[in-house]
Amino acid sequence: xxxxxxxxxxxxxxxxxxxxxxxxSTARIITVCSGKGGVGKSNFxxxxxxxxxxxxxxxxxxxxxIGMANIDVLMGVTAxxxxxxxxxxxxxxxxxxQLGPNALPFIAGGSGMDELFSxxxxxxxxxxxxxxxxxxxxxxxxxxxxxxxxxxxxxxxTSADDCLVVTTPEPTAITDAYxxxxxxxxxxxxxxxxxxxxxxxxxxxxxxxxDKIRMAASRFLQLDVPFLGYISSDVHVVQxxxxxxPFSIAFPNSAAAKDIQRLALSYLASGNIEVSKVQGxxxxxxxxxxxxx
Length: 293
Prior knowledge:
The chain is α/β, with parallel strands linked by helices. It has one domain: Rossmann fold. 47% of the residues lie in helices and 15% in strands. It is built from 13 helices and 8 strands. It has an 8-stranded mixed beta sheet with strand order 3-4-2-5-1-6-7-8, with helices on both faces. Strand 7, helix 9 and strand 8 (227-232) form a beta-alpha-beta unit. The longest helix is centred in the last third of the chain and has 19 residues, at 203-221. The protein is globular and about 50 Å long.
């Protein structure tokens, strides 16, 4: 594993973020999802974002879980503003973006998310312009979506560049992860999926778990789903949640922390992830909140 991590670091360090002509950043939009709750999706998203930032990437974390937003709780940060205040024009984008551990920029979820789909044209233009002000300075924007596949989550996933699917070795989690990819692929065949196995006893269990999903996706959906990596079942993760400190910061030498670093390195080294297919946040919002004609 150490040799693999070192080779990944060399490959990643040789890459420079690419920008479109004119100097405007085309931030790659990543949604993190899961077929069911309880698989550690939000914890993964937070620590993955921190790992990318530690590797020199500019990252914005957006808590997009409409019903169970909890990124700020995992960080032990009290967010003064959230999306609601931006939509009501009670605060601008600079005010609603908070800083978490290691100065990670994030937008708290909660109230306001469900109002996005009923914005007037004027309010939608204002929202897009505000988000674009900060998004255009980012390399990656991570959206932590709700578990399962609600209508709102579906819109997030099908509008993004990449979908990172988090599962565990539990049979129900495996089944639900495959079901999510099946439904999303039927709606948006071009979307890129990458699979993460969380809470794995060891590498063998993680590989066996990923193979079950990947083989089914290949056979029945003609879909190639790369296995990005796994996170070990680690008591330090539970301890970090109780302390409200990300495990990669609270226990940097833990198995889970080393795994999340390898995952981030694997993602950056996977190729073709520096350029957005949806043309940055403006393209994403246009697809995400597109009006029905």
